[in-house]
Write a structure and sequence with these properties.
mainly alpha
């Protein structure tokens, strides 16, 4: 049933948003490095690789520069137009194609590169690979300000691997264990809510039983008991 709603929602969204998407395609083609889409290998269901679609917001060679596939606040690799697209999450909209084609779901664990996926423990990796990755999800909602969280860290990649990834893995494990249509629609609603109200703590009450974050992340994630 979730796949039915994935096809329905992604198809409708592509149709409704086409007046927005077409001008962005033209704008990106005429600015920056002239690239419209950025395709990157991500790990999907059963561990299969697929090409994730995003609007191009960073330098072409960005995965080989600085922090690799981990993006931090005020990352110098982000192109001028890319800052707005990333801030508004518009750069994520081409993933509607991934959803329509079946690589992803509207809701699920965040699709990760091999570098960030390998920061999970082996057990978490096996759990996450049971489901399709999602455009949004529990981990995406809780860590919606991940670039800001990484700001100022002396060693951002180490902080990601040692603090963010382990907790994000627990959140994704919680989602897989509680996967249902109720959770599916709740994630969609909360995603829209926190995009409008960025400081909202609704997620902590909307999903009772979420594993609490470690002490060094509680303030950064606006954790509410």
């Amino acid at each position: 049933m979730q796949r039915f709603f994935d096809i329905l929602f992604s198809g409708l969204a592509l149709l409704v948003l086409s007046p927005l998407l077409v001008p962005i395609v033209i704008f990106l083609k005429m600015t920056g490095e002239g690239e419209v889409f950025y395709l990157q290998d991500r790990i999907g269901r059963s561990g299969k690789l697929f090409k994730l679609y995003k609007f191009a917001t960073m330098l072409k060679n960005s995965p080989n520069i600085a922090t690799g596939t981990v993006t931090v606040k005020d990352d110098p690799r982000v192109l001028p137009a890319g800052k707005f697209l990333r801030k508004t999450k518009i750069n994520e909209l081409p993933q509607l194609l991934n959803i329509f084609f079946g690589d992803m779901s509207v809701v699920g664990p965040r699709p990760l590169t091999a570098q960030t996926f390998n920061a999970y423990s082996h057990d978490i990796q096996q759990i996450v690979k049971q489901v399709r990755p999602g455009l949004s999800g529990i981990g995406s909602i809780i860590f919606r300000g991940e670039e800001d969280i990484l700001a100022g860290e002396a060693s951002s990649v180490d902080f990601y691997n040692n603090s963010i990834a382990p907790y994000k893995g627990l959140l994704e494990e919680w989602y897989v264990e509680h996967q249902s249509l109720r959770t599916y629609f709740a994630v969609i609603f909360v995603t829209v809510w926190v995009v409008i109200f960025s400081k909202s703590t609704l997620a902590w009450s909307a999903f009772p039983g979420l594993p609490p974050p470690p002490s060094n992340l509680r303030n950064l994630l606006n954790y509410q008991i």
